[in-house]
Amino acid sequence: MSESLAAEFISYYNNLTQVNGTCRIFERNDKYCCYGIDAKLIAKVLSSVKLKLLEADGESLHYVSMTKGHFIEVLRHLLFIIQYKVKIMRNFGTGKNSNWKPVGEASPGNLTSVEDLLFDHNSYAMPQRGLLAVKITNESNEMVVGVTFCDPILREFQMCQFVDNPQLSTLQ
């Protein structure tokens, strides 16, 4: 990025209103970038990205750039784990005439604009769906069923235990 474009972008970014709980991700050709406070957050989430400094005209702005795979990982972390909103920005301008506009907004309760990225069945970024374990034991002449589910996206375990009959109709 040339110094004049960098200065223009830094000025544009500094004039944006910061919204708590929202992360702006800028789509740039084949990569995704975050700036300022958002970049520092992403650098904590992804140990594989390096926090860099964009400098022009005596001003500076921290940023990180990500591949599509990292972007999907960041989306999952922001939306599912720390419950952030995400705004994806794209430049519709050319050269010096930048025109950044939102092309997607997502929140933990509204994944419509990013669901293709998050839940693509052919995606290399989602190798697992989850793991389920069932254990059946006899305790005091009762059949006790224990069920555990491991969610790799949310990184949590869900467990339950209940009494069932020999036909396992409650489990079904």
How would you explain this protein's 3D organization?
This is DNA mismatch repair protein Msh2. GO terms for molecular function: ATP binding; mismatched DNA binding. It comes from Trichonephila clavata. One of its GO terms (biological process) is mismatch repair. It is a single chain. The protein is of the alpha+beta class and 172 residues long. The protein is 24% helix and 39% strand. The chain is built from 4 helices and 9 strands, in the order H-E-E-H-E-E-H-E-E-H-E-E-E. Strands 3-4-2-1-5-6 form a 6-stranded mixed sheet. Strands 7-8-9 form a 3-stranded antiparallel sheet, with no helix packed on it. Strand 3 and strand 4 (59-66) form a beta hairpin. It is elongated, with a radius of gyration of 22 Å.
What are its keywords?
about 170 residues; 3-stranded antiparallel β-sheet; 6-stranded mixed β-sheet; 4 helices
